[in-house]
Amino acid sequence: MGEMANSAVEFYPKGTRDGSHTGEDFAVTVNELRELMELRGADALQKIQDSYGDTEGLCQRLQSSTTDGLSGDPADLERRYQAYGKNFIPPKKPKTFLELVWEALQDVTLIILEAAAIISLGLSFYQPPGKEMEGCGNVSAGAEDEGEADAGWIEGAAILMSVVCVVLVTAFNDWSKEKQFRGLQSRIEQEQKFTVVRKGNVIQIPVADMVVGDIAQVKYGDLLPTDGILIQGNDLKIDESSLTGESDHVRKSAEKDPMLLSGTHVMEGSGRMLVTAVGINSQTGIIFTLLGAGEMEEEGKEKKAKKQDGGVAMEMQPLKSAEGGEVEDREKKKTNVPKKEKSVLQGKLTKLAVQIGKAGLVMSAITVIILVLYFVINTFVVEGRIWMAECTPVYIQYFVKFFIIGVTVLVVAVPEGLPLAVTISLAYSVKKMMKDNNLVRHLDACETMGNATAICSDKTGTLTTNRMTVVQSFLGDVHHRVIPDPGQISPRALDLLVNAIAINSAYTSKILPPDVEGGLAKQVGNKTECGLLGFVLDLRQDYTPVREQIPEERLYKVYTFNSVRKSMSTVIKLPDGSFRLYSKGASEIMLKKCSYILDANGEPRIFRPRDRDEMVKQVIEPMACEGLRTICIAYRDLSGTPEPEWDNEAEIVTELTCITIVGIEDPVRPEVPEAIRKCQRAGITVRMVTGDNINTARAIAAKCGIIHPGDDFICIEGKDFNRRIRNEKGEIEQERIDKIWPKLRVLARSSPTDKHTLVKGIIDSNVIEQRQVVAVTGDGTNDGPALKKADVGFAMGIAGTDVAKEASDIILTDDNFSSIVKAVMWGRNVYDSISKFLQFQLTVNVVAVIVAFTGACITQDSPLKAVQMLWVNLIMDTFASLALATEPPTEALLLRKPYGRNNPLISLTMMKNILGHGVYQLVIIFTLLFIGERIFNIDSGRNAPLHSPPSEHYTIIFNTFVLMQLFNEINARKIHGERNVFDGIFSNPIFCSIVLGTFAVQIVIVQWGGKPFSCAPLNIEQWLWCLFVGVGELLWGQVIATVPSERLPCLKEAGLGLEPGEEEGEELAEDEEEIDCAERELRRGQILWFRGLNRIQTQVLFQDSFKANRNQMFFFCQRDKTENTEICRNSNT
Hints:
The protein is an alpha+beta fold and 1133 residues long.
């Protein structure tokens, strides 16, 4: 606490350092409120009583009203901003462009190149005395004759210039990516709204606009954006684990513990709170400021180094639902790794990078060794020279040249453009997916979605419109198939019905007039309750007078709806001192609690078990079979003396009198059946997991096309599912789940724990050869564990709670199932874009490495010079990644099955293309290298001495090489063996402009590049031959497409060879250690692919930062329970 007291000064807004400013405007200072919010339970109540009398007194001092809230006057809000600060925690400062440049310079490959270039530069200025030069052999002969020895510095300078280009491109890419994520972050922040009372009206405002003195309405599923004091609460339970580390839910009430803290989750109930601290003065803000942004950044980096992708998963601990939490805990203890494993593509790319990096390193080392040995043997053994001191700089210059060639081979071998392609493809997709109503919170989720094999979807709101309407009812012993006339219902029953619906619903649920004349009335709040309120209006009654007569404060006791109760009950006190309980819920569950039912005269009569069975058969099942949701509304009168034991819910909510059973229709969204058909065609199984009755669920599933008559499928209820998957000891067995899930299509009356069990069971299953990739939709707080466990968690943007959104990977801004299909399309497009780029990149790499290696070994010089290689490597890679990663998706992507986790990244067809085009290019280049001078009747460029001028011979080789890559880039647009490589090329203007732009720059380099690029200008005839060979790539592509991949058994090995370690275990969840080993190898410095991994890591870092800022909550408290919980606790004591 001493530490906090010392730093307390830092937290006040301008002008409030000594509290004097706030004293003028309000009777409470920031300091007093901060001290108050640090207390809990009885201490807090005592402090409120001593200082302010009661909460009402505090409210008055803050010039607010517990019933009407603030006036909303801009001047008043501005005063509050000045006095108490804004509800905003400043984000960490973004890295400056110079910092990003410095980071890009840390790349090991670039450092080696810089060193080599500087040595080369230094030695080029050394001119040994002329006489001794002859004794050093013919190392510089020719250069002198051309009078160009003084141009030796150009190569070193050109390499340094190329390095500068690489660094600037990398830094600019990182900078624009950070900017993009900050934009995404602010979009998410703007979308987060909270319900407050202003001028007596309940309105939703952006979280950042909340001020001290606001009266906020908290409800199930909210993530509290400010600190506050509870004024009135119904059965409120809060998960404070994000601040205290304690997983048990804390019960809050105005009488016992009214302190509510920002960053905590409402797990049950509802209430109203007075906002007492916002932004950096809230408990969340205090901890943020105590830790300091700098420290957080350091911590973040360290953690990222330890577990590159794990950070995302650890930000939110799984929510402790009855069993789900324990399951997650057991898993954590067992594997000791974060839950979210690497995405399919990331895992494959990491392995591929390790392979290529090792190969490149070996090739470059061998190149340098062969060159040095050849030079030494040739100079000192064959020619019999002796090493003279004055010749040392000349020899060293040769060795530096060899070293540069070696590094060049390595630079070309390592696919630098690959991480750039991944970044561009993902960033491009994320931006476009926003237009398709997918707000992506974790970048890799977008790509994982392309491999999804199963989707477990909610019914209400996702498959259906979530516009509830009562269409049938059973009232007064009559089953009405349309809305009855009020005259057909006894006045007593009608009065009870209106009261039961009006009072026993959240007062935030209401029906508002339509926005446009003749439109549908607006449903605000819980859609089921809106359906019931609509029923009251259809009966020509009004619910508002009832609510005005019995305002929310007068509700005596509320048992809020949760997934265990599947019902909601409200108790009111009647004028004679007795109590009345109204209850509504799932019809089968409620009828078991009913002992009476209202007859045609509105009088209660006995309701026996056999009557109940009759009711289920005659009323509930027919309604359910029509796809209606059945809800029972009931009441019970309780004596006031002695007052009932309200905490004994089982005794209170029993012996009820049934008023009515209603059938609520929630129509299937018109676009859903087609979307589900697309999923099934794309090899994705859709399963419906719902809390509804099994008959309703089955009827809706049939309408959606999830189940078809005559198919072999299973539809079961949650309790049957649990019975069939557990052994005699009640433990879940994977073998039992494996017998059910492949045929399961509908899981009805399921709890969130059942959903979690099903998702985990499918993911862990080994029944099918391919490990299943599961997507899950969820909207409730208790869906958290299932959303976390799934490979991709979709939260509902409209109906979803903050907790569900926090646990998800993608938010569906329109709550529509067809948006999930778009996510699948984009995901597959990302995977294909990376595959296209790989196909192109690896062809370039294979050819360039072999040419540089064999050329160096045979002619003691690489036909492609270091600067030319850097042009090929940097510009072609960067441009190609931009061109191939921005291809828009097409419907054709949904016509094939998912690739699967264990399929190699390089398919058989791709391998055929890479090797086929590689062979073509190598034949052409080696032909030009060894007999090119005779074909074109020009001087040979082979065995040229140091610093000799550029030759036409080697320029033709360089030009032909680049043009072949350009035309092969067009071939690379297709990876499944399609013949028409130009199909849809004009729908991607980026691709066209990049191909033409690269060609234009190539002309400039060849004709005017001169010494820096080692190019001699070519004439028209030579250009036409180069172009002719380039276009030959397209024709050769058609020849390759004719060869069936299956006929090339040798390729199978090659394709799979890039995927080591997969056979050790189909399941990457169990096999994460193996990926980590690969990463450790990368980090040892054996492989120069750091820049790529840094880019991917930076993405994760950005996601974390915007995710954290989205709710201004302390994920660091959760990420490392051992250290940080302690910090949180200290700040709370």
